[in-house]
Amino acid sequence: MAFARSRQALAVTGVLGLALGVAACGTGDDKKSDKAGSAECAAYEKYQGNDGKKVSIYSSIRDIEADRLEQSWKEFEDCTGIEIDHEGSGEFEAQLGVRVDGGNAPDVAFIPQPGLLKRFVDSGKLKPVGADTKAMAEQNYSADWLKYSTVNGQFYGAPLGSNVKSFVWYSPKMFKEKGWTVPTTWDDLIKLSDQIAASGMKPWCAGIESGDATGWPATDWIEDVLLRTAGPDVYDQWTTHGIPFNDPKVVEAVNKAGTILKNEKYVNGGFGGVKSIATTSFQEAGVPITNGKCALHRQASFYANQWPKGTNVAEDGDVFAFYFPGIDPEKKPVLGGGEFVAAFADRPEVQAVQTYLASGEYANSRAKIGDWVSANKKLDINNVPNPVDKLSVGILQDPKTVFRFDGSDLMPAAVGAGTFWKGMVSWINGKDTTTVLNDIEGSWPK
Amino acid sequence: MDFDFAAEQPKFLMLMYGLIAFVMVVGGLLLLLDVVPAFFARRREARLVAATANGAVLTGRPRKPGEGIFALFFLLPTVLLLLIGLVVPAIRTTLLSFMDGRSENFVGLDNYAWMLTDDSIVRVLINTLVWVLLVPLAATTIGLLYAVMVDRARGEALAKSLIFMPMAISFVGASIIWKFVYAFRGAGQDQIGLLNQFVVWFGGEPKQWLLDSPLNTLLLIVIMVWIQAGFAMVVLSAAIKAIPGDIIEAARLDGVTAWQMFWRVTLPSIRPALIVVVVTITIATLKVFDIVRTTTNGNYETSVIANEMYNQAFRYGQNGHGAALAVVLFILVIPIVIYQIRNLRQQREG
Q1: What is the gyration radius of the CA atoms in chain A, in angstroms?
Q2: What ipTM was estimated for this complex?
Q3: Among A108, A167, B183, B186, which one is most buried in terms of CB atoms within 10 A?
Q4: Which residues of A touch B101 (CB under 8 A)?
Q5: Do A418 and B311 touch (CB under 8 A)?
Q6: How far apart are CA A145 and CA B316, in angstroms?
Q7: Alpha-carbon gap, residue A48 to A430, rounded angstroms
Q8: What is the secondary structure of B236-248 as a DSSP string?
């Protein structure tokens, strides 16, 4: 039996090896087209001198997004001779730790959770970025962003892509037909919700089922509301555990979110009652807007990719998004996320790649390919093709915007990717706010 | 949804390459494993024939000196792999279970205390217990009854393959299928879940099956039973067929009822197979992970040890908690394994 199994294993390894070999042949272009010195390579002058070197990148970006990513740095590869080997994984968060602990760390990782980044800094595995990268990042990103990858005064990586989470999706067509207007304050939002509810439609739809990450859309709700009720300073204290997780201000925010999410009159359009939020997948949650069963869906900019085929996502189209209004219309807190280009190696070619990815040239090169948003100040909004992405870039570049990173990504993973998610699931499922928040506070690692 | 073959062509091409590579490698290996020993066998045969032709007498193979070392040499890879793959990790995991989340400081029994005081983890332990009690019992009972009922019946092969089919589906695949069975849509909408559709047909309100504890754990157990009953049925059916005909005939002559036949003849005769089935399913159930992770990810109080262990160690970065859960799982499996080994040994001696 053991023999048969090892024979099988051998066969599998052989096949995998061959398949990978074939895959490599399939995508491998002629990397060594020596274009260095030509006119289009002038912009890459400062990254020269690393010809023939390899840099491995590990990220959670896969499929078409990964193809676009690889396309975006192709010119850089051709001009500098640095070969970038990108690998995307659906189990990125779990596997990165395994790879790093096993001595098989990638050169660069795109880490979407500052909390995870800090964990690798604490274990001494991450390398601070070089002076060039730091200068480039400081030039192109606001201090709000840089602080998330700064640990103990050291800077560990520039931001890359971003998303804006403070959006409410709606149907401009439906709003026009019914004569509703886009609300700009919380009170207007509630008034509109009541008005829609009175017309016989459940105004809101929501869904927090997301496989092994079930619960995260609800944590975004809470964070977004807390930013509005308590302000960015309290928010910062909360994410860093300066105030307890179950602080009265947080209880207030959760209850305020509950006035929508746990209101049987408001939810869950197209799916059922409040509890159906727990089992509705985040991908389908907003779709009832397209068939008139629901009017409002709070979800991030990246929800643009989830609409059924043929849905026109535009300001005057089938669906679009408006800014999730604040209590005070003068203040514009924005919740968002993004990934950071952190490195486990500090070889010159790795630093060159890090510097390039922080540059305005890269941001524009990637944005032109489509479906991408960044807080990079050098990003020309005209290079962003998609209307929702344009709206996001506009908000991110607005100097009045107060940006705050998704709190669950800042907290220790045991809370941010664990008890907070699970707590929100039980909260939707009927548990009361205080019990849920007390439980989460109790689980904060000491 | 339309499917554009032309656009998907590269993927099909890749699939074809993969298949060709698979056939080549597997075929090559099989050929190699077949041809090489056959070649040596032929050579030995030829030599023997030549030797006997010369009038030599065939004797038993003499034991050469140093054969023990030779045997050790063959054993070495297995011992080495067992050490690296099993013994070292087991020791390391045990050590980690006495350390904190980052595996830096010793914390004594804190992780075990956490396990018994944290309500959600106690729930996990209880759930695992429910699984281990119900799955082997239900799967074996169903498998046994089915095996007895279809034995020598008409269309036996078809009836057997029907219940054996789920065995061929991976746990994740089966969980996704059942997730659809349990799927929920609000009242008044088109149900996409089979179970809720039945409920609606009989005039009931659709229900969110996976939300309410403890019903949801039982519904997940159904999935495991669905997969494992086929395994129990096949093994037990083979055992029933292996009962010597004279025993059955003798029992018939003595005039047993069907009931007596089952309890006095069939069951005692297949006892060894029954134990193997129960033990195998019990161990599989203790390790259950895929079903819970795919359907609920341990939400709504459905988590089990293996799922919680993975979450703690690899998602939350709480190595100590994860290791402690792993050690508990290990300890739970040990008595079953010992029982199984002793049982096997008794059979061999008996």
Answers
A1: 23
A2: 0.75
A3: A167
A4: 414, 445
A5: yes
A6: 24
A7: 60
A8: HHHHHHTS-HHHH
Instruction: Give the span between the Cα atoms of B337 and A361, in whole angstroms.
Output: 62
State how far the Cα of B146 lies from the Cα of B139, in Å rounded to an integer: 11
Q: pTM score, two decimals?
A: 0.79
What are the CA-CA distances from residue B290 to residues A277, B95, B142, B295, B319 (Å)?
23, 27, 22, 8, 21
Check residue B321 and give its pLDDT: 94
Task: Give the best residue of A12, A212, A435 to mutate against chain B (max B CB count within 10 A).
Answer: A212
Polymer length of chain B: 350
Distance CA A188, CA A190 (A): 5
- DSSP codes of every residue in A329-392: TT--EEEEEEEEEEES---HHHHHHHHHHHSHHHHHHHHHHSS-----TT--GGG--SHHHHHH
CB contact at 8 A, A422 and A215 = yes
**What is d(CA A158, CA A155) in angstroms, rounded to the nearest whole number?**
8
The answer, yes or no, to whether residue B116 has pLDDT greater than 50, is: yes
Interchain CB distance below 8 Å, A15 and B102: no
The strand pair at A167-170 and A297-298 is best described as: antiparallel
Q: CA A68, CA A117: separation in Å to the nearest integer? A: 24
Say whether pLDDT at A36 is over 60.
Answer: no
Residues 6+ apart with CB under 8 A from B256: B264, B265
Compute the distance between CA of residue A74 and CA of residue A379 in angstroms, rounded to an integer. 19
Instruction: Write down the mean pLDDT value for chain B.
Output: 88
Q: Is A422 on the interface with B (CB under 8 A)?
A: yes
SS3 at position A241 = coil
* Closest C-alpha to A307, from A320, A296, A294, A298: A320
Put simply, the chain A residues between 392 and 421 with a CB less than 8 A from any chain B CB are 412-414, 417-418
Which residue on chain B is closest to A19 by alpha carbon?
B18
A238 phi/psi in degrees, rounded to 5: -70, -45
Query: For chain A, how many residues are written?
Result: 446
Of B22, B102, B316, Cβ closest to residue A417: B316
Q: Is the pLDDT score of B197 beyond 60?
A: yes
Cα separation, A169 vs A300, in Å, equals 9
**Distance between CA B23 and CA B13 in Å, rounded?**
15
Q: Which residues of B touch A7 (CB under 8 A)?
A: 29, 33
Question: What are the tokens at B210?
Answer: 């996976």
CB pairs under 8 A between A and B: 100
Which residues, in sequence order, are CB contacts of B169 under 8 Å at separation 6+? B177, B227
Residue B300 and residue A429: Cβ atoms within 8 Å? yes
Q: Please report, as a single letter, which amino acid is at residue A360.
A: G
How far apart are the C-alpha atoms of A285 and A205, rounded to whole Å?
Answer: 6
Query: Helix crossing, B215-241 with B271-286: angle to 10°?
Result: 150
pLDDT at A379 over 90: yes
Tokens encoding B88: 């070292």
Residue B299 in this model has a pLDDT that exceeds 70: yes
Kindly determine whether residue A14 and residue B25, on different chains, have CB atoms separated by under 8 Å: yes
